[in-house]
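Handout, section B. The chain below has 141 residues.
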Amino acid sequence: MRTIKKININKIKFSIITLFALFLASCSGRTIKIYHNDTSKVDDGGICGGCLKAFFNKNNLYIKNVNVKSLTLKNQILLIQKKIILTQSNIEPDDSYYEYVLIHKKDTLFSDSRLEFWRYKNFGVYYKPDNKIKKVIQKNF
């Protein structure tokens, strides 16, 4: 009798731990890290395509970052990334200026100040997301 109770308690503990782990995994899967370069505070403060690592310089006072949990934003980022990968006429980005970086898991997208030109790796595409997405990104800065 005690063995059966012990087994049931272990099953219940395992189930609770599993559900908790799934909950954490689902929440972290929609977290987007957004970096923003505030060019309004500095003349010629834009970050060009050749210097994208500047977004991740911790000493840069004009770069702010936030974590945003939004399933809609995550899906939009995946759509833009897919569009860049699948588009036959990708634009090879020149030394354009970038103001936003959006990171989901290990994927990094760079965008201009209008959130209309998107860069993924060494390819780019013009894509205008709806205003709802722009507001989600811009309201944090």
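Note. The first helix runs from residue 2 to 28. Compare this with the example in section A.
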